[in-house]
Amino acid sequence: MGSKNKLKRFKENKTFRNVIEIPREEVLKDQVSYKGSWRTDFFKNSNPIVLELGCGKGEYTIELAKRNPNKNFIGIDIKGARFWKGAKAALEEDLNNVAFIRTQIELISYFFNESEVDEIWITFPDPQIKYKRTKHRLTNTSFLSQYKDILKPEGLLHLKTDSEFMHGYTLGLLHGLGYPVLYANHDVYKNEGAPKEVTAIQTFYEKQYLEQKKAITYIQFTLKS
User: Fold this and answer.
1) Tell me, what's the pLDDT at 6?
2) Per-domain boundaries in the chain
3) Taking the C-alpha atoms of 93, 122, 180 and 142 in order, what is their torsion angle to the nearest 10 degrees?
């Protein structure tokens, strides 16, 4: 994507009522106005809140929102030029249960209160295989600790990935920490039993992975000790 297109999308994002972008320095000063009041002040309802972390173009966020009008969905990504597409589509389709936040995932606890979130989806994250990059791996112990703070005690987490490494790493970590794994599948399109939303929704890149005969894995778990 050219720099002109990126700038255009960044400008458009600022006009979208479903996009929240707060300067990092304000976030670190705990100046996120919707923290603790996403339901009442932003969505104007009392429905459950579901996050998609590293939402990319927002495809999963949008499709989940369409299938679950009784839930609120928030896609989170630092690359606003990517989720511009999802934000625009949500407005055009009048999906009032969708929002997007432009921020780093490591700042997530500044945006939500304790137990404010009901579910978290992590779809096709970068596995960060190199040792020096483990701090950016979205299911490492540091991130899990943050998720636990903002999730309800029984809150569900979903990891869908094409990375066997990420799948195995996360399973091992969860077992080691004693967190319940409710469902795990190393190839959701070959083995039956995965929740419908796992196989019914496919992102642009997921379709490419499937064309390359890559297995798509899935884990559903909680962080209830």
Assistant:
1) 85
2) 3-221
3) -130
Q: Contact 210/199 with Cβ under 8 angstroms?
A: no
Provide mean pLDDT across the span 30-54: 97
What is the β-pairing status of strands 49-53 and 72-77?
A: parallel
What average pLDDT does range 87-94 have in this prediction? 96
For residue 124, pLDDT beyond 80: yes
Q: How far apart are CA 59 and CA 202, in angstroms?
A: 8
To 10 degrees, the CA torsion angle through 219, 67, 83, 204?
70
Catalytic residue among 126, 149, 162, 187: 126
Instruction: Report the DSSP beta bridge partners of residue 120.
Output: 51, 157
CATH placement of domain 3-221: 3.40.50.150
For the question of residue 162 being annotated catalytic, the response is no
